[in-house]
């Protein structure tokens, strides 16, 4: 007997990922079907489109944080994606925090022949944990793992601190050279 479809609402945790790129989806519904996972929701522009626009904002003197906030809020659109079960790499679950992450392969925005790996992480409501785990194990039992899903915002903070540090070093070197 085929499993019955299961659906749930999600609010993506963009600061968490296993590996690959953070998916463009921010909120929506997730369906477990015989064909695969169907993600239907609000998505931001793909990162390949966002980065040139954010760089333009920087050139005109608008900060990275403000530019990113504008891109997150103003450019959302309805999007639907079917992820066949053979394209799901991992369904991870962190029991202490009730956080799940689906790691999957999908075509690149600019080159549909190129496949990229994406992470869609979200918090599970207490009443959803059991059915989510049940259907995950029913459809892809060999791909379900209990792991700690890392917080990638710490990596971003480290990168920003390194960039700021390098800018301070360059300013210091430039001011020492102009003083001679």
Question: Secondary structure elements and their pairing?
Answer:
Layout (H helix, E strand, L loop, with lengths): L5 E6 L9 E2 L2 E8 L3 E8 L3 H13 L4 H11 L2 E8 L3 E7 L4 E9 L7 E9 L2 H14 L4 E3 L6 H26 L2
Parallel strand pairs: 2-8, 6-9
Antiparallel strand pairs: 1-3, 3-4, 4-5, 6-7, 7-8
Structure description:
- The structure is a single chain.
- The chain is an alpha+beta fold and 180 residues long.
- The chain folds into 2 domains: 6-149, PH-domain like, CATH 2.30.29.30; 153-180.
- The chain is 36% helix and 33% strand.
- It contains 4 helices and 9 strands.
- The protein has helices spanning 47-59, 64-74, 126-139, 153-178; strands at 6-11, 21-22, 25-32, 36-43, 77-84, 88-94, 99-107, 115-123, 144-146.
- The strands form 2 sheets. Strands 2-8-7-6-9 form a 5-stranded mixed β-sheet, covered by helices on one side.
- A hairpin with a 7-residue loop joins strand 7 and strand 8.
- Helix 1 (47-59) packs across helix 2 (64-74).
- The radius of gyration is 20 Å and the shape is elongated.
Strand content: 25-35%
Count of discrete alpha- or pi-helical segments spanning 4 or more residues = 4
User: CATH superfamily membership of the largest domain, which one?
Assistant: Pleckstrin-homology domain (PH domain)/Phosphotyrosine-binding domain (PTB)
User: Strands of the largest sheet, in order across it?
Assistant: 2-8-7-6-9
Any low-confidence stretches, pLDDT <50, length ≥5?
Answer: none
Alpha-carbon Rg, integer = 20 Å
Order of helices and strands: EEEEHHEEEEHEH
How many strand segments?
A: 9
The CATH topology annotation of the largest domain reads as PH-domain like
CATH architecture verdict of the largest domain:
Roll
CATH class of the largest domain: Mainly Beta
């Amino acid at each position: 007997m085929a499993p019955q479809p299961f659906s749930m609402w999600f609010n993506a945790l963009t600061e968490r990922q296993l590996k690959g790129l953070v998916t463009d989806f921010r909120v929506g519904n997730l369906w477990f079907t015989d064909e695969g996972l169907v993600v239907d929701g609000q998505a931001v522009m793909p990162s390949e489109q966002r980065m040139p626009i954010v760089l333009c904002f920087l050139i005109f003197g608008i900060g990275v944080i403000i530019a990113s906030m504008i891109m997150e809020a103003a450019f959302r659109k309805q999007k639907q994606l079917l992820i066949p079960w053979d394209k799901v790499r991992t369904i991870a679950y962190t029991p202490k925090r009730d956080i799940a992450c689906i790691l999957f392969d999908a075509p690149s925005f600019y080159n549909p022949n190129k496949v990229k790996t994406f992470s869609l992480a979200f918090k599970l409501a207490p009443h959803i944990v059991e059915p989510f785990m049940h259907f995950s194990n029913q459809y892809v039992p060999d791909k379900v793992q209990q792991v700690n899903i890392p917080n990638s915002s710490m990596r971003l903070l480290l990168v920003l601190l390194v960039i700021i540090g390098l800018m301070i070093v360059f300013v210091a070197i430039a001011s020492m050279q102009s003083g001679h």
